[in-house]
């Protein structure tokens, strides 16, 4: 189908950079001193800071009670029903007594209600964060350090106390990192965690969670491991000890898992008909606790249960600062991962419901949640995708839903927590494994990324493999390093192209991709798809010379050799002339050979016949010297044509620099070398489509001088091409080419 043509006529003069600046009255933007704004002190400034760092004061006075309160109450109740079993289970995943999962479901959630900006995310315990905490607690406080001498059993009381101290100190350190990064507006750090990286990392973390729960599913006693390949050794040990499995524990986990899966399927099937989802996890926990208490699963079948859950809250405890040095690396990794998960979910819900999430304030809010929570013996938290989806789908409108859920958890901690002492740990493990469905489904990303972007697939796979093999902290560092190196590698090998003009337009496209695009006769237009900097500047120059279809370096080398040879020949002839003159003067002759002497003058000279041979030789030298001197004085004496060298089939080169986002010193030198080399082979160089910040950086780097001015820089490629055709370096301009443009 042919495109309908419309006649557009735009008439304007050709504009180089100097003319464009004069026409547009360009002036450099004066930098504002941000610190002056920070140090301003006024009532309005103080109020703005208070509302910025305590957002609840901004939205709570305008809260529409009649419209939103009922939805937030129902949503908070639904989230609390999920929060209870997940808190107990994820504490187990973190290597801590289950009650500390309840604490982590109360304090941080209420703190986020005061400082958070996302209305729909459910802050609290999360599987990935818990398994990262568990890797720290189990590596720094392994079971082997708490063996009793008499019967070689583990002193669980001392072990749990040490792990709680580690987890709370870790939470405080994570909070300090997050608050500090938020206050210095370092929220953009999460941009270095791309979506494929986050998906690959969370998928690997879910595999680690799954493997770590197998010991509770089969009732096995495993050794504590940490570091690279620890998850592989754990899986091998599980397979080795399978014959020692406790049948009662396996049956309990299997039944609980089947019930949870059936309830989730019913919720998905009846989603449109149910006002609230069926609380399958809570019902399973209540039923399993009742059966365990009535049947006596622990005593009769050897099923391990949760044990003592103290009622009431515990007083705040200052963290052990001596542990900070051991935890700093893991704390930073947990801080970044927790924030990345929270902000990604927060932005999804904000986009869906039409409000804005402040990434820096989210860092501060999460940091304060972890910091204050760590003082009250909590472990690091983030937000849960499953609970956030429930909070949104059940009518949650604001952070009030989170506050309601935390109050319900408070009631459970104070009054009802001790009722779950007979809850089998196998049921909690089954609940964790069933909740991993969403993250394990991310394996389907492999197929979609294979079709969409294989570089992103490579990031996903490297992240997954590195996290599985190196553990969560080192795996994250390796994944970030690989993704950044991949970006550098991709900028080192960009797409280079020679551009041609699309007929009847001022648009230039790659002639290799657009069959109708035609190169403008006499002009080469070269473009790179990436900015030019130290990592690819040499490749840029080499590819440019290669794409031009002529060996520039060899041509320059041949030219210099010929010029040097010519210069040496001229010097030799002049020396011989001088010697001949001296010889003639000593014999009283008047033979004079100079650059302007003609053959007729030499033949008419009054010389003796016996000197005819000498005069003939002198005449030959004279002619050669004269021609050499004339070539040296002529303006085209050193041209390629005069030297008998091949000439390029173009007289002008246009560099499309529209892809440049910055320039460094290597880029400046490379551009200057390009000007020098192509001018050496009689090709004039122009630049086009530079952005204003790049022009400013070129000026700051003293790029422009007497030989390269802003008149060599044009507003667009078309301007540069037309100017090059109207002002060729050598040879007449073709009228046909100009009118075609």
TrEMBL record:
NCBIfam families on file: sulP (TIGR00815)
UniProt KW keywords: Coiled coil, Membrane, Transmembrane, Transmembrane helix
Region of interest: Disordered: 602-638
Keyword Protein transport belongs to the record: no
PROSITE patterns documented for this protein: SLC26A, STAS
Species for this entry: Equus przewalskii
Residue ranges that the Swiss-Prot or TrEMBL entry lists as coiled coil: 556-583
Compartments where located: Membrane
TM regions (residue ranges): 68-84, 90-115, 169-193, 246-266, 278-296, 331-351, 363-382, 394-414, 426-451, 457-489
Domain STAS per the UniProt entry, residue ranges: 513-724
Membrane topology: Multi-pass membrane protein
UniProt keyword Transmembrane present: yes
Primary gene name: SLC26A6
One Pfam family in the UniProt entry: STAS
Gene3D superfamilies, per the entry: STAS domain
Protein name: Solute carrier family 26 member 6 isoform X6
């Amino acid at each position: 189908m042919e495109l309908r043509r419309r006649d557009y006529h735009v008439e304007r003069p050709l504009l180089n950079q100097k003319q464009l600046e004069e026409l547009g009255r360009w002036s450099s933007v004066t930098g504002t001193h941000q610190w002056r704004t920070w140090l301003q002190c006024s009532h309005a400034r103080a109020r703005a800071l208070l509302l910025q760092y305590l957002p609840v004061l901004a939205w709570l006075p305008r809260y529409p009670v009649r419209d939103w309160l009922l939805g937030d109450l129902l949503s908070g109740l639904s989230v609390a029903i999920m929060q209870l079993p997940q808190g107990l289970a994820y504490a187990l995943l973190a290597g801590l007594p289950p009650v500390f999962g309840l604490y982590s479901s109360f304090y941080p959630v209420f703190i986020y209600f005061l400082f958070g900006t996302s209305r729909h995310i459910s802050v609290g315990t999360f599987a990935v964060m818990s398994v990262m905490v568990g890797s720290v607690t189990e590596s720094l406080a392994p079971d082997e350090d708490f063996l009793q001498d008499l019967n070689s059993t583990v002193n669980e009381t001392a072990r749990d106390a040490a792990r709680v101290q580690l987890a709370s100190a870790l939470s405080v350190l994570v909070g300090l990192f997050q608050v500090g990064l938020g206050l210095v507006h370092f929220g953009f750090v999460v941009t270095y965690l791309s979506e494929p990286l986050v998906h690959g990392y969370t998928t690997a973390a879910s595999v680690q969670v799954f493997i770590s729960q197998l010991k509770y599913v089969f009732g096995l006693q495993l050794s504590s491991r940490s570091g690279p390949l620890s998850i592989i050794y754990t899986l091998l040990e599980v397979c080795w000890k399978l014959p020692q499995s406790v049948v009662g524990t396996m049956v309990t986990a299997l039944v609980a898992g089947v019930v949870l899966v059936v309830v989730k399927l019913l919720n998905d099937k009846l989603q449109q008909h149910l006002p609230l989802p069926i609380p399958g996890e809570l019902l399973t926990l209540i039923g399993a606790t009742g059966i365990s208490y009535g049947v006596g699963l622990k005593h009769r079948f050897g099923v391990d249960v949760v044990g003592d859950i103290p009622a009431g809250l515990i007083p705040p405890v200052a963290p052990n600062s001596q542990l900070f040095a051991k935890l700093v690396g893991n704390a930073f990794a947990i801080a970044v991962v927790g924030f990345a998960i929270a902000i990604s979910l927060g932005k999804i819900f904000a986009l869906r419901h039409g409000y804005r999430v402040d990434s820096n304030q989210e860092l501060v809010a999460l940091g304060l949640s972890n910091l204050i929570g760590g003082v009250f013996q909590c472990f690091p938290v983030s937000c849960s995708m499953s609970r956030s989806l429930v909070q949104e789908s059940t009518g949650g409108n604001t952070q009030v839903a989170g506050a309601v859920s935390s109050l319900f958890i408070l009631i459970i901690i104070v009054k009802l927590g001790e009722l779950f002492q007979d809850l089998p740990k196998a049921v909690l493990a089954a609940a964790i494994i069933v909740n991993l469905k969403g993250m394990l489904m991310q394996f389907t990303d492999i197929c979609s990324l294979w079709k969409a972007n294989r570089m992103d697939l490579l990031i996903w796979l490297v992240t997954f493999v590195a996290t599985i093999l190196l553990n969560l902290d080192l795996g994250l560092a390796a994944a970030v390093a690989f993704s950044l190196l991949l970006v550098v590698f991709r900028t080192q090998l960009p797409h280079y192209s020679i551009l041609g003009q699309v007929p009847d337009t001022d648009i230039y496209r790659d002639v290799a991709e657009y069959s109708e695009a035609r190169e403008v006769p006499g002009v080469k237009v070269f473009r790179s798809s990436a900015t030019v900097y130290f990592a690819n500047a040499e490749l840029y120059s080499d590819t440019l010379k290669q794409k031009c279809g002529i060996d520039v370096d060899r041509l320059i080398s041949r030219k210099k050799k010929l010029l040097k040879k010519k210069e040496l020949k001229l010097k030799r002839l002049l020396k011989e002339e001088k010697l001949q003159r001296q010889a003639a003067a000593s014999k009283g002759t008047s033979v004079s050979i100079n650059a302007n002497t003609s053959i007729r003058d030499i033949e008419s000279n009054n010389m003796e016949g016996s000197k005819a041979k000498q005069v003939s030789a002198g005449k030959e030298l004279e002619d050669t010297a004269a021609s050499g001197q004339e070539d040296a004085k002529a303006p085209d004496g050193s041209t390629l044509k005069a030297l008998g060298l091949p000439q390029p089939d173009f007289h002008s080169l246009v560099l499309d620099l529209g892809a440049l986002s910055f320039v460094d010193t290597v880029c400046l030198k490379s551009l200057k070398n390009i000007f020098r080399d192509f001018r050496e082979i009689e090709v004039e160089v122009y630049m086009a489509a530079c952005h204003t910040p790049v022009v400013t950086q070129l000026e700051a780097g003293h790029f422009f001088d007497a030989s390269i001015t802003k008149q060599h820089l044009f507003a667009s490629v078309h301007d540069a091409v037309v100017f090059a055709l109207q002002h060729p370096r050598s040879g007449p301009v073709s009228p046909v080419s100009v009118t075609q443009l």
